[in-house]
Design a protein that fits this description.
There is one protein chain. By secondary structure, the protein is mainly beta. It has no helices and ten strands. The chain has a single domain, classed as Jelly Rolls. The strands form two sheets. A six-stranded antiparallel β-sheet has the order 1-2-3-10-5-8, with no helix packed on it. It has a four-stranded antiparallel β-sheet with strand order 4-9-6-7, with no helix packed on it. The mean pLDDT is 96.
């Protein structure tokens, strides 16, 4: 299945997971076309200061891969780290994380959520 950028559903979420600002999600495929163990496959765009609030993944895991800009992530151990182009993070079942855009250009990540 090939989906062109203009066919992808764009979703705007205010204060996602009690974060700041408006997060833009560009869903790669319609939910009904995702494999049964995949809950999300999307490009996520965060302007400077926009964040996805701290949240825990139960019975699922999430991968972030940074493709533009930079941000900061905080993992379940409360450790804050810089997220730069080419960096990837993995939050497994029971893990908690937070993401915020920190660069002048948008922080763009690819996010995949799989069910355990």
């Amino acid at each position: 299945m090939l989906v062109k950028p203009n066919q992808m559903r764009v979703e705007k979420r205010e204060k996602m997971r009690d974060g700041n600002g408006t997060v833009i999600l560009e869903h790669f495929f319609p939910k009904e076309n995702l494999p049964s163990k995949t809950r999300l496959a999307a490009r996520i765009i965060l302007e400077k200061g926009v964040s996805i609030g701290s949240h825990t993944h139960s019975n699922e895991s999430e991968i972030y891969y940074c493709i533009q800009g930079s941000g900061k992530v905080i993992d379940g151990d409360g450790i804050e780290q810089a997220l730069n182009v080419g960096d990837a993070t993995l939050t497994c079942h029971g893990g908690t994380h937070y993401l915020e855009g920190t660069s002048v250009e948008p922080c763009i990540i690819v996010a995949i959520v799989t069910l355990d």
